[in-house]
User: Fold these one by one.
Assistant:
Number 1:
Amino acid sequence: MGADQRLFSRLNAGKHELCPVSWLKPGRQDTLATYARKLLPQISDAANSALLGVSMGGMIAIELAKLTPFKKIILISSAKTFHELPPYLRKVGNAGWYKKITARRLIRLRQLAAPLMNRLGGGYRVSGQMIKDTDPEFLDWCMKAVLTWNNETIPANLIHIHGTADLLLPARYISGYIPVKRGSHLIIYQQANKINELLHGLPEES
């Protein structure tokens, strides 16, 4: 949530052009589905493009795929349906407890945990900095939108890459994915060489 182009800085698109989709300011009542519709005008030639989404971005990729066909959908460290969210997160969403988990509290927690995150490595430093740099209102919306997501549709041309040591979206709740051994939620940054290898090994037609 709140990730930006820095998360993709180690991604090697090879012969393909990487075209980031920019976040827009969501309406207070936007869901991931309605927000995806607002992002759609940024995407051209979807039928000949692969759409890659990480974490919440993967969920939005699912919603975009409902609106227009893509050549391929690639999820990394994400969930295909709300059933793949861990039960405790679904419980938080159903009970409305996300209202108590504000962005300002997350940013304060990040500040307190900064020394530990810095010792853990670059991925955690970058992740923490992106959280710090994100508009708190946008982060609040992200938490609500993810925790109340109700998608049950899985596109046929979808490929899911997931770390086996992901603590945010544990792999035991995920099905039908390509595993990255000992990979955390930040595999796209921390294990970029492995991700690039997997992406370059995918067939042109899924």
Number 2:
Amino acid sequence: MTANETLEIESLEIHLTQERMNAFGDAAGSAGRVHTDPEWAEPVFGSTLAQGMLVLDPVVQMMVGVCGSDNWFEGGRVKAKFVGMTRPGDTVVARMKDVEVVEEEGRKRVRGSFSCETQAGVVVIVGEAEGPLPQ
């Protein structure tokens, strides 16, 4: 890849289930009642709500696919704004756009903007991601 080159990154999706949310909460330490206790969450929110970082995971996976895991975890960055809620039963598609390869301080990086959207077309996360490319 050369600097100033545009790049296409294939979209990824995640299907949210209560089981997946519970497992993520246990693993990530985000097992709050709003995420894992339907009896508590339903009267307040209509259902449990998925953890934002779980819904953001496809974006990270796309960037790991381009940058490689070592490069991403050493120098990847995500700026995200959570603009909607996701619930068990939702399928969320993460898409990258305006992706380009740039050179900074002698190192090539990939950067672009992203959105995460439910099967109903509701945007729930928007942001930017960038990370170093393999040398």
Number 3:
Amino acid sequence: MKSGKPFRKNPTEIWTPICPSQVIQSNTQEILDNVTIDVLCQSLSHLATLVRREDLIALHEVLVFRMDVLQQHMAKFSRDAPPEKSALLYTAASHCSTLLQSAGLNTGEHNSAAMLASVFLLDNSNLIE
């Protein structure tokens, strides 16, 4: 960090390997226990709080292809996690909602923000147009 700029990886490089794909999820469901899924959901919640507007387009493909699994795991985590663990989920939901309401989002950014928000919001029926 000699340049004075913080280290920043492309968000797709981080999200892609840790977002469970449908194939992996269905082939290893018995291996992934609740603790692993809880840790994964906590990590994704934390990462979501770091997403910036300029990251939204890069995250689009990850969100499109892994949306169902992400929503499924986050819903279970939200339902089962104790309050001290679920606080990060609500922080992520708040951050994603703020991103979604950002002025001047283009269609791609809006769609990505809506998908990301729907992963963390419990009532997400009206986010994606």
